[in-house]
Amino acid sequence: MTGSLSVRNLDDDLIARLKRRAARHGRSAEAEHREILRQALTGEPEPSFDDLAAEFRAMTRGRRHTPAEALLREGRDER
């Protein structure tokens, strides 16, 4: 199954540059857009869950955290 992506609010100059680049490569603007995304994202390694979790912990370091059991209890008490 293939997906679809709409990109809104692009600068007119950027669209014109995309169309010129597509013409140089003998592709439609849509095909060029797909190729640009493919090249940009296939060379980027997908971070592991452990790396993402470590990044999240670093972002939230020093913040006050509410224990899950307190949140569950609060949710039950609201019913």
Secondary structure layout plus pairing:
Layout: H1 12-24, H2 29-42, H3 49-59, H4 68-77
Helix pairs in contact: 1-2
3D architecture notes:
With 79 residues, this protein is mainly alpha-helical. The protein has one domain. Helices cover 61% and strands 0% of the residues. It has helices at 12-24, 29-42, 49-59, 68-77. Helix 1 crosses helix 2 (29-42). The chain is elongated, with a radius of gyration of 22 Å. 0% of the residues are buried.
Task: Produce a short descriptive summary.
The protein has 79 residues and is mainly alpha-helical. It has 4 helices and no strands.
Salient structural properties:
single chain, 79 residues, mainly alpha, 4 helices, 0% strand, elongated
- Counting DSSP E segments of at least 2 residues, the number of strands comes to 0
Overall geometry comes to: elongated
Query: Quick check: average pLDDT?
Result: 93
H/E element string? HHHH
Helical content band: 55-70%
Q: Radius of gyration, Cα only, in angstroms?
A: 22 Å
In this structure, how is the largest beta sheet organized? none
- The N- to C-terminal Cα distance equals 42 Å
The fraction of residues assigned to DSSP E strands is under 5%
Assign the structural class, choosing from mainly alpha, mainly beta, alpha/beta, alpha+beta, or little secondary structure. Answer: mainly alpha
